[in-house]
Amino acid sequence: MTISTLTRGGAQREQQHCLRKMERVIIAMQDPDIGLKMRNQRLLITVIPHAMTGNDIMEWLIQKYNITDEEAGHLGGLLVQYGYIYPLKEPRSLILRSDDSPYRFQTPYFWTSSRWPASELDYAIYLAKKNIRKQGELVDYEKQNYNLLHKRINHTWDFVVMQAREQIRASKQRRKADRIVLECQEQAYWLVNKPCNRRALVRNRVKSSICLESFMKFCDQYHQHDPIMSGCLPSNPWISDDTTHWTINTDLVGTPTRLRVERWSFSFMELLNDCLGRREFMTYLEKEFSGENLCFWEACEDLRHGESSKIILKVEEVYKTFLSPGAARWVNIDSKTMERTLEGIKQPHRFVMDDAQMHIYFLMKKDSYPRYLKSDLYKNMLSKAIVPQETKKSVFPFMRRQRHSSPSPAMVSQATEDNGKAKGAGPAATNSGTLS
Amino acid sequence: FSGSFGEVYQTFHLSIYMSSNNKFSISPEMATQEVQPNETLSNLKAESDTLKTKLEDERAKLHDVELHQVAEKVDGLGQFIMKTRRTLKGHGNKVLCMDWCKDKRRIVSSSQDGKVIVWDAFTTNKEHAVTMPCTWVMACAYAPSGCAVACGGLDNKCSVYPLSLDKNENLAAKKKSVAMHTNYLSACSFTNSDMQILTSSGDGTCALWDVESGQLLQSFHGHAADVLCLDLAPSETGNTFISGGCDKKANVWDMRSGQCIQSFETHESDINSVRYYPSGDAFASGSDDATCRLYDLRADREVAIYSKESIIFGASSVDFSLSGRLLFGGYNDYTINVWDVLKGTRVSILFGHENRVSALRVSPDGTAFCSGSWDHTLRVWA
């Protein structure tokens, strides 16, 4: 698959092509001769004209395109998801039911293709209208968006409210049937096109003085750990040709250096990024019977960064092991996140565990990590850690030491592969020592 | 309502913006006009400019102090001596790109003549060599496992070569084509694993690919010209990256949604290199305008410019020392300038290369940095 040459709006242009194809289907469905037969449908006590049943839609698709039930269900479902057809009963459930549930065609004014991108201002007006018409009618995510928008475009909020009021007043002057139709159309549009929670919506700028202080702190904290600034012990391999510095800092060395163990206390990420640190932390968590948290986090990382082909399998595994009721290593996530995650698992993708992963990550960071740093396990590690002697400068500076080669990471993994383990399992740094 | 078809096409113009004294009436009408009578092009442009100024004002409100002011209380850096400790000779033409292996001593480099070489820089031994079917291999990257390398250039592709130790095996035979752009590949990088690659291209886009299948996972549109460089964030949520391009812009992207979440446009020419500050809260850029700059992501602004009257040629490649205190810049006038990131001063200038410096990276453990040059060599400095 290639990327099309273009400047801005590339993804939109790709989507436009699909939308146009869908529109052709929709237009054919409404053709007076070969299209669907529409009739009046009852919605509670009001009669909605020009509606059709889910079953009608399925049958028309099967007949017109000579496809199976399954494919018609899939295609019809997409038409609903993209907002070209909307359900009258249960409007929030954007699926195609192949029974007598009533559906309607969306007016072209509200087609995704003609109105893209959904404007924040329009959305704000829509939410304001809902809020004014009936207090408490907004659902969770709508309430969130309402508050966000209220903050973000606060300077035009008077305008938003005024517009909302005017539009409500104008709609009251219409016939009830028309009004209901319009409300349905508008609601359907916003269900499909609600602006997503972009990070840009909630960017809080921080004062310069605070940001710049943080750079000073960081540079200061890492000063001793920066070999170019402070040298390294026993010596910098590139200068002395002595690789001891690398040997004593291999991934799973028996006794780590003091600097290395100290670094684990700088941030949770530092601890996790060091395989030795991570292993120590796992030991600690297991003592506290919360090892499953770290295992879950690792499984999510593996899902996010792994092959596309293994996604479905991995999601199933994660669900079975960590999330299902009575799972062997059940993780404690708040009910809202759990609900969202379980819903998302129905259509597994790479990022489906993101919310849950972040929840567990912050749980470990705020709770287990600080306690680990105060624990005996960590303190012992620190006291046992070695501080190498600085190598005395060579008496004969011109005599160069022999530079030993090291096993290539590619060879290391080939060997472990021969032993029946997964290829490329460990980081390359495992064996960068000298060969004697 | 007449027939079904007619009804569907009748629309109600709901978002007509009315003034409070009812200048415009609302009535069902065909939604043919989107723009109201007084919203002329010049009005809209003026509104857009006002919004831009407002944005700058908002940014400026929080700017209460300069970096060098804050850094006054920090000790200055003493004498700075760094020398070439290794010279890697073997490329037959301009070196365009290089990357370190996680083992802290191996390096992959690529050149104009299509050669990609893997070295043990410590011993200066060449371990693998591949000849690409194209010239100008502008991008290369080492896989996190150390078992493969990725590269590409004028072939518009990014290909992955598993590194085999069988001396008789032809590496090119196992080559896997992953990315396909419609113009040259300018940069590539593996993400947290060997399974995904992020690329940038002369076609103005960046893209994220699944290595195993070659599937496009996400594309990033927003640059108005060639994208020349990219770097992945070291942040704990690991979901963003930065890119720099010929449109003088540096963009921050959300990998998951494909959205550009921040943009900086203060350089006066092409941005050749971008690199995150080690904490992930800022990044540096190097440009043809002969300056390097530091951008703070939380303050959402440029916070330092590293420049001197005597530095006239563009910076091609930048990287931070481990603590972020030093910024190394490779320049087109063959030199490497070392900057004190906090104080904004230059602490050292390194001579040695005999042509443009085209690539520069600090080693994973910060013990050295490597520079690649159009003089066909790579040098490791410590």
UniProtKB/TrEMBL annotation, chain A:
Residues 405-417 have a biased composition (Polar residues). The keyword Kinase does not apply. One of its GO terms (biological process) is G protein-coupled receptor signaling pathway. GO terms for cellular component: cytoplasm; neuron projection; plasma membrane. InterPro entries: DEP_dom, G-protein_gamma-like_dom, GGL_sf, RGS, RGS6/7/9/11, RGS6/7/9/11_DHEX_sf, RGS_DHEX, RGS_sf. It holds the Pfam family RGS_DHEX. Residues 401-436 are annotated as: Disordered. Keywords: Signal transduction inhibitor. The keyword Ligase does not apply. GO terms for molecular function: GTPase activator activity. Residues 32-107 form the DEP domain. PROSITE patterns: DEP, RGS. SMART domains: DEP, G_gamma, GGL, RGS. Residues 267-382 form the RGS domain. This is Regulator of G protein signaling 11. It comes from Esox lucius. The lineage of its organism: Eukaryota, Metazoa, Chordata, Craniata, Vertebrata.
TrEMBL record, chain B:
Keywords: Repeat, Transducer, WD repeat. GO terms for biological process: signal transduction. InterPro entries: G-protein_beta_1-5 (IPR016346), WD40/YVTN_repeat-like_dom_sf (IPR015943), WD40_G-protein_beta-like (IPR001632), WD40_PAC1 (IPR020472), WD40_repeat_CS (IPR019775), WD40_repeat_dom_sf (IPR036322), WD40_rpt (IPR001680). CDD domains: WD40. SMART domains: WD40. This is Guanine nucleotide binding protein (G protein), beta 5a. May interact with RGS9; this interaction stabilizes both proteins and increases RGS9 GTPase-activating protein (GAP) activity, hence accelerating the deactivation of D(2) dopamine receptor-mediated signaling. Belongs to the WD repeat G protein beta family. PANTHER family: GUANINE NUCLEOTIDE-BINDING PROTEIN BETA G PROTEIN BETA (PTHR19850). It holds the Pfam family WD40_Gbeta. Gene3D superfamilies: YVTN repeat-like/Quinoprotein amine dehydrogenase. The keyword Repeat applies. It comes from Esox lucius (Northern pike).
